[in-house]
Amino acid sequence: MEQLSVRFEVGVPWAWKISAQRKSGGQMERIEQQRGNRPTVTSDVQQRLRNSIEEQPGLTLAELLETLEKAVPLHVSIGRL
Prior knowledge:
Layout: H1 2-7, H2 12-25, H3 43-55, H4 61-71
Helix pairs in contact: 3-4
């Protein structure tokens, strides 16, 4: 690996990663890593919230959260809401 890393001007850890990836998945290009968590509140959930607010603008956050939980199997905190 050291000889290959010198030849291709990459670090030894990078060469190890590429070698392991080629052995496990058959491809030599590095796969882009996903960073962070996937968003809990998707665009569909956001649209449902907008619709609920437009239909009943006087809802409290607790009531809005309750309406959302009935419509979508999802729990978010009031702060996130």
